[in-house]
């Protein structure tokens, strides 16, 4: 491909069950030394800067772009092509339309950074930096890192666009602690993060994770682990999340396939914000996503997350997501399986469910999509949980609350006019890790 090889320089983790206990931050703050306390203060400034003061405008803009793609200016569906590459490329949603049909994507990988939408729309990852080619799937030494490994790549200073020389299975011996301004780009090969620990994005910003598979993630014991070129320190036991986003901002997770992690698939906690999770496929898990760790942690009020074009598939039970405090735009996702509920929360989160398809389970007692926790109806009835043009199937139903959305934030110009939920199968058709091959559209 002709990429320059970046010559590497030689030079308290969480458990989600305990996350939900009030006072988490107070009880665990002593795990952070001066270095991590400084990182936390810097990240808090970045998170505040990434916060959108008018979140409705962001979600409204997103809705308009989806509407234009689906309906088109002539109000006819603009969905052509075949599922395989024998026919024209079919980029079925506005994020994919930005890059997927370019057969020369491999020569212009960083164009991907221009395609994110939603609350994470300012994320550019490693754009503008060098390419780092991962050549070695091993993960042995946690401090004196081996050049060419994924762990070595994600702990380097400055922006990097990380790609892979070949298909590989990477079993992480401990949590993979990343630094800011990184893109992990698995396109063109098959990258499996499996059988070990998961990703930790703690007190950082500007990260893209794209085109990989993450599954069978387990708890690991901790110890001395490098988290940057110039620092390593002692970490407690990892939590078993696939991707843990902790006090971080401007994060985009796209076209990732995930299943069977010890704790959550993706957790977003401790004041994280400006996050988009899109085009991904989730299966085989109990508590899929936790957005907000503790009822008592009010700093999560700045949390803003977009969930778009994802497929929540087989053998999922609950938390798709489970939210606290913040603002969550859940748009054009396909919910084909749950056993308890799909979307839940506590502590007055704003949840705008728009254009999703919800196929209820056969269990007559689990048809309700929503679940409010730890509050009586006299309290949660004021929470802003609205369903806009969702499609309900097999008896599924969404219990709305809060004042009806009139004029602003969603004007008639922002709304998708044809029931968008009926198009979700097409919009999410390519959810999950893609089979991208050089010289062909993905």
Q: What portion of residues is helical? A: 10-25%
Total domain units? 1
Unreliably modeled segments: 1-18, 21-28, 71-85, 410-419
Tell me the fraction of residues in β-strands, as a range: 25-35%
Which structural category fits the helices and strands?
alpha/beta
Biggest sheet details = 10 strands, parallel
Output the CATH topology: Pectate Lyase C-like
CATH classification, class level: Mainly Beta
Strand tally: 31
Integer average pLDDT: 85
The CATH homologous superfamily name equals: Single-stranded right-handed beta-helix, Pectin lyase-like
Radius of gyration equals 21 Å
Structure annotation, total helices: 8
Give the second-level CATH assignment, the architecture.
3 Solenoid
Q: What strand order characterises the main sheet?
A: 1-2-5-8-13-16-20-24-27-30
Catalytic activity: Eliminative cleavage of (1->4)-alpha-D-galacturonan to give oligosaccharides with 4-deoxy-alpha-D-galact-4-enuronosyl groups at their non-reducing ends
Enzyme class: lyase
Protein name: Pectate lyase
Subcellular location: Secreted, Cell wall
Structural account:
The chain has a ten-stranded parallel beta sheet with strand order 1-2-5-8-13-16-20-24-27-30. Strands 3-6-9-14-17-21-25-28-31 form a nine-stranded parallel beta sheet, with no helix packed on it. An eight-stranded parallel beta sheet has the order 4-7-12-15-19-23-26-29, with no helix packed on it. The longest helix is centred in the first third of the chain and has 17 residues. It is an alpha/beta fold and 442 residues long. The N terminus is likely disordered. Helix content is 14%, strand content 28%. It has eight helices and 31 strands. Strand 1, helix 6 and strand 2 form a beta-alpha-beta unit. It has a single domain, classed as Single-stranded right-handed beta-helix, Pectin lyase-like (Pectate Lyase C-like), CATH 2.160.20. The protein starts with 15 loop residues before the first helix and ends in a 15-residue tail after the last helix. One of its GO terms (biological process) is pectin catabolic process. Its EC number is 4.2.2.2. Keywords: Calcium, Cell wall, Glycoprotein, Lyase, Metal-binding, Secreted, Signal.
